[in-house]
User: Fold this.
Amino acid sequence: MTGGFTAPQIDWAQLAPIIIVLGAGVVGVLVEAFVPRGVRRNVQLALTLLASAGALIAVAALWSGVRETGGTSVVGGSILLDGPALVIQGVVAALTLIALLVVADRTETGESAFAPAAAAVPGSDYEQLARRAGLEQTEVFPLIMFAAGGMMIFPAAGDLLTMFVALEVLSLPLYLLSGLARRRRLLSQEAAMKYFLLGAFASAFFLFGVGLLYGFAGSVRLDAIAEATTTVVGLDPLMLAGVAMLLVGLLFKIGAVPFHSWTPDVYQGAPTPITGFMAACTKAAAFGALLRVVYVVVPSIVWDLRPALWAVVILTMAVGTLVALVQTDVKRILAYSAIAHTGFILTGVVALTSSGITSVLFYVLAYGAASIGIFAIVTLVREVGPDGVVLGEATHLSQWTGLGRSNPWLAVTFSLFLLSFAGIPLTAGFIAKFTAFSAAVEGGATPLAIAGAVASAIAVFFYVRIIVLMFFTDAPRAGDRTGAEVTVVKSEGLTTVAIALTALLTVLLGVFPSPVLDLMAQAAKFIP
Amino acid sequence: MTSSIATHLPAAVAFSTASVPAEGLLSLAWLLVALPLAGAATLLLVGRRADAWGHWLGVLASAASFLVGFAMFIALLGRPADDRIVNLHLFDWIPAGNLNVEAGLQIDPLSLTFVLLVTFVGTLIHIYSVAYMEHDVDRRRFFAYLNLFVAAMLVLVLADSYLLLFVGWEGVGLVSYLLIGFWFQSTANAVAAKKAFIANRIGDLGLLIALMLMFATYGAVDFTTVLGGVDGVSQGTLTAIGLMLLLAACGKSAQFPLQSWLGDAMAGPTPVSALIHAATMVTAGVYLIVRSGPIFDGAPDAQLVVVIVGAITLIFGAIIGCAKDDIKKALAASTMSQIGYMILAAGLGPIGYALAIFHLVTHGFFKAGLFLGAGSVMHGMGDQVNMRQFGALRTYMKATYITFAFGWLAILGVPPFSGFWSKDKIIEAAFVGEGWRPWVFGTVALLGAGLTAFYMSRVFFMTFFGAKRWNDGHKTRPGTALSKQPVQHPHESPRLMVWPMIVLAIGSAALGGLLSIGNVFQTWLEPVTGHVEEHEPVLAVWLIMTLTLALVAAGLWLAYVQYAKAPVPVVVPVGSVLTRAARKDLYQDDVNDALLVEPGKYLTRSLVYGDRQVVDGAVGGLGHIMVRLGEVVRRSQTGYVRSYAAMMTVGLVALVAVVLATRI
Assistant:
């Protein structure tokens, strides 16, 4: 090591979206330390909103350059800022911005969705004290920024180590956030624990795969590995096992079967705004990384991976759909629906065509928007205690009966998101499914498209069942209800804005998809 | 006169499809549709708050549309005849792969004729309705629908493709449904509306199939491509398209065998009957056939069917008209019969296109006038429609009587009233040709004129002549059937109703003659219908004219003797077999019931049964299986991290094994 260290040439401008978001996270930690408690939440909220918006603007500013050059390699190839990476960064920034609105909303009850003091033992006196003192765990905001920063690096990573670091950067804050629910804290903490353990397990697989691939190719850079798959001979089992383990790490993050088990428990246990954030942004980022691995590394060994990947896709769609049929909890239904959607998006991934990339990019945006919106609505439907105190969310299906009569706007918007999930025309979900399935057909994966269509048909049942419950079933009279009474709390306005924005996106992307589809088609090219 | 009335036969049919893009004033043609559409939207959206002024907004929108149309007319007159087909591109409508439909308007003499007729007569009827509907709480809704109708009808006639035409076609169908059932509180009206809608659907199906055939044949549905490209298409295809278009025309124009809805459609308010079910919408079928002229020219078989349908309906309607006691239903039967004339003319080919449209225009005036007259009578007689309880009204309603008389003389074809110029020419044209056709169709057309004279004179005399057959409250002997009727105080209608009737009466009297001077109307339509050479009918023209007038005189005299001289029984007499059949619309409803409704009901019942037992059973069964499967898979979700981790490990091993297995 006599040559010493040569600092790499870094084109900082290309990293602007990432730096803005991570920088906001760091500043947020300082805010926690130095800003008085009274204004802390507002400062944090303003800071994070500004940072997300700034990242979005930075993405837009970088777009024309990427469109012309096809993308740049930054930090010596560790970060690849190409079309798909930039689009995912934009999607993450935009969806984070909307998700933050839901996270920050305290509703008319004045209580946020997060525990007043996360360190307090659930049910303890200290917890009561913290609650009465009106404490707030405003660390939520910087944590979200860190997670979002990781999500923005994840799809842009040019080598497997950067990818692993990004994976951990995005995962660790999410583990924490999942355990911060204000109500049903034990469930929340259990979910966080499960998520952490299984996430660590999956990360281990990922690292093991990285190790195998390094042994095979002598490098962790994706382009080098891709090149080695065609040149190195005699080490194929090493390479194949390595790729398979790498994929397991990624399939875990997107919640594909059989690596999905954490999804329902975590979606249910986590604070609902965080569930929406995870469903939208984590999925977008993880699919970005998966796309890069599959489209850069896999093409030369596609015939080896195809049976396994197809099996995963079909299993994911089937399990997600079938189990959702028998759920009675709204959040769990949505969790299984998320699993099914993972399967649908995967059809676009395994299509291995450029229209496949377009479809995935469009799908994560359409699905993400609807997810944030639908979980935002879930945060507003609450149980009421016998003394009229508003409690936690009413997530049992039976509690949603007749909501269409008492709260028509809320129920109509909820139905809009459900219809989008079901893939009914004139919603974003239809266009997304359509592009994904047609990409699959184009890429020679017609059976997957057929399986997807069948799964969608079955899925309509449980989506429409909720709509029927809300609109066409009589609400039980007061007192007859089995669970607690249900009310819809007013938001502070932030959640309403988020719901309106996502509903608007869902309709616009469904009615006028072409501008966005064109844009994503232009972006659908990876640089090696 | 002989030369001007002499009929024509095609030389080389010069169908002009060359069109020029719209510029200047003509590029504002979209206003024609936009104005009434905006009127309708405003009236429907503003709701009850517009009740006070809504009807005037409706009149204004329609009148403004007429003014724009008139300006277009002047602009088009200022162009050389070859440049009078103007296209206005609006927007790319359906850019879908092979099918690329642009929404555009075609402004040419034919469409503009319709624009003027629809907006002018429409505006008059709007004004009439202000007074006629004054006491109706839903007057605003009524005007919203009328505006919507004008907009839809203009889309229909201005469209430059069959698909956009179809939009207007469905639009007028919808408005027709809404207005027939305007007083939907009564079940009979709602049923009549449904009947009209369903009968129209059958015709619409024809139009849809025609659209599909066009797309399959040409890959396009715009007029320029379809009508300009007939040369390269087989006669069989053209016949199929033609017959489907005819089916559409039969539905919309109440032609045999889809005519049964028109009589029931009289359940709507009378202005609606005048505008939609007499002057404009029901003539859309004639427009469709004339517009599609090149297709029919290339399909003689389809053309023959058109003529036959026209001839049958002509007689059919006339016979029904002779027996109806309901003044509106008698007029409806007459409409059916007169449109039969137009369809017959349209089926004669290029020789008849202009005549069909000519008769359509004059008919639009005199029939609208007659309906408004009927409405005025009903207005004065407490909504009574039974002519057996009218009589001697001429002294009570002078203006109505005189304007009605103008319409009556016009439809009879008495010179120099409008109908003489248009109907006689159709009769002459029917006598042109070779072989058996001129003799059969000419005779039918001739007989129709005599029947028309009889039933229209019957309506006229029963209403305005003879003895009073209504209870005037003091001269009626107590205890008779008459005294049990409500007391009537017949009176003239308000000025807002009378003036439109006067304007229409002037049109009924003079329009035909004016438009015949130097064949000005036919020359005007030539860019669309093509120029035709004159040709002599098989009988001498003077002979045909004499025969026609003689038959008209005979019909008139017969009606006079029977309904003006002799007392008209208030109680309906039993009548002959034919009369009884005609009263029941020649059993068309029973035929429809036996042939379509009952089998249809049986079919739906068995389908419902099959759906419940087979389809629902299968779906339900599948659903149960799916739920079972879900239950099974759900068990893997134990909630224990250890089992989740185990599942992941198994998954990993399986994945790696499958991947590696591919290399074995």
Observations:
- The longest strand of chain B covers residues 86-96.
- Strands of chain B lie at 8-10, 20-21, 86-96, 99-107, 532-534.
